[in-house]
Amino acid sequence: MSRYADFYRESIEQRDAFWSEQARLIAWHTPPRQVCDYSRPPFARWFVGGSTNLCHNALDRHLAQRALQPALVAISTETGTERSYSFAELHAEVQRMAAVLRALGVNKGDRVLIYMPMIAEAAFAMLACARIGALHSVVFGGFAAGSLALRIEDAEPVAVVSADAGSRGGKVLPYKPLLDEAIARSKHKPAAVLLVDRGLAPMPRQPGRDHDWALLRAQQLDTVVPCEWVESTHPSYTLYTSGTTGRPKGVQRDTGGYAVALAASMQHIFGAQAGQTAFTTSDIGWVVGHSYIIYGPLIAGLTSILYEGLPTRPNAGVWWSIVEKYRVTHMFSAPTALRVLRKQDPDWFGKYDLSSLKALWLAGEPLDASTAQWISDALRVPVIDNYWQTETGWPILALAHAVEPQSTRFGSPGKAMYGYHVKLIDEASGQELNTPGQKGVLAIEGPLPPGCMQTVWRDDARFVDTYWKSLPGRLIYNTFDWGVRDADGYHFILGRTDDVINVAGHRLGTREIEESLATHPNIAEVAVVGVADPFKGQAAMAFAVARDSTGLDSAAARLKFEGELMQQVDRQLGAVARPSRVHFVGALPKTRSGKLLRRALQAVAEHRDPGDLSTLEDPVALQQVRDLLDAPKNTAP
Ligand code: AMP
Prior knowledge:
- The protein is globular.
- By secondary structure, it is an alpha/beta fold.
- Helix 6 links the parallel strand 6 (111-115) and strand 7.
- The N and C termini lie far apart (58 Å).
- Helix 1 (3-13) crosses helix 2, helix 7 packs across helix 8 (176-185) and helix 10 (256-268) crosses helix 11 (287-299).
- It is built from 20 helices and 32 strands.
- It folds into 2 domains: 3-309 and 386-481, ANL, N-terminal domain (Rossmann fold, 3-Layer(aba) Sandwich); 504-630, ANL, C-terminal domain (GMP Synthetase, Chain A, domain 3, 2-Layer Sandwich).
């Protein structure tokens, strides 16, 4: 038996002993009484009776030994700024932010919505919430007013922390007008809005509600805000993610379990040691940003780099110049970013000293073998694909080289990580599939390990019904991904089983995009599917039926309408959700019972065989789509 196999088996068979050992990696105010309470499946309560604080573990705990070590380095190639905060300085900034939030009426258990670009103040805000026991709900800055309004309504934040603008590729993207519009649309009105003025865009303030961070910070320069000790099971945050309905789910995470899971992953999966430097290129609006820009590295005493900008600006060497300058040891990115870099001059690697780098971790979407091969040849360090979800907070599949070095198989994110009782399930029968090579739904036997979602925010029923009751005959966590396993335990992910698509590593629900398009008065019906794209992994493609198609006879008229619809999605959801094309058709392919045949539509859009069409009501609709996509004159932009 290999070392990792033993380690894994212990995590499943002697669960409490295993996790009780891992719990020693963090600081507890009161040690836990019980490791795991699974008396009410599928709700798992980890480290019951223990009290702790995420911010204490990320900052205060390190002050004795590493007060002067950089904790956070905020680099923006958009504004040309670079600012380093030592653990002591970050500790001070976070206390100022915590004091300001308190003064604005935020208390333990309250929600604070963070709608911010990638600037240091976003990290201050997250850590400040953790410090006072408030829950943060970070909304990705690329989302627009409609998406933001839905999240404000669901989270009901007491306060919102935001900024005048973000910037992308040198273009200023104002945030404040989107925030104002979102609050206007939302039934819930936050009492306070705290604004960071970067001097990028004009920012009218609403008296009484809007406050300036710089002004309020100046009043709290020396305020001491002790950490609020919270129960291990106290929620630390919610993070919204797309599912099969148009309504995103608030993934809710605990405190103690999350801290332990991250500390353990920093040790076993990342092999990280205090004093090293992590550079995670994700955004704080996504789970990778929460776990491996903010909490994971800081809990483990690493310096973390927060980067605002493109990977290609001022040139495609910018990330490698950061690796050289800060002696980055651990880098974490997404396959899409590397595919973008690959298009550029490959010589950039040779220009910098990358000898500090120990490995590159990639997650968020499938890593194709050719990109994996290219980047590992260029960097000459291990490239570690790892698979997980917003729901789990840390990798489900990876290779834990720090436990035992293992060989990589390109195309596979690796083996089940300790604590995850991963199974492949037959979708129709609910039976477990044990023969290597059999394709099934990747599922996880409860309890989920520490760090995973506790529930859907204020919707336990949705948590149970969506995730745990969707496979026949058993209570088991459904990842909604197809998978297959080889004889050595390496898994391969074969795409989603539901209507979620993955565009450039961003998870999007096709229903949300459909609902946005359908609000146009001249749209009768619309279907959105994910279509394979060489750079983004997938692209959203829309097929729409116009209510009144008179006036849409010419290609120019259709193009104009298409542009109008795209702008509408930009305005409502954000440019991330904009479909790559909107094609106009006479009808959508449906079954006799009226169900939209998305999979057939997707297959045709990818020029694949749509498979069994016996339930199709009207074959003409699908043929029309095929003709449309095959006819260059109709599809040319
Ligand atoms: P998110 O919750 O945004 O992190 O998206 C999670 C989904 O992204 C998963 O359910 C998968 O469909 C996909 N995904 C994440 N990591 C990988 C990976 N390493 N390989 C293949 N798919 C992945």
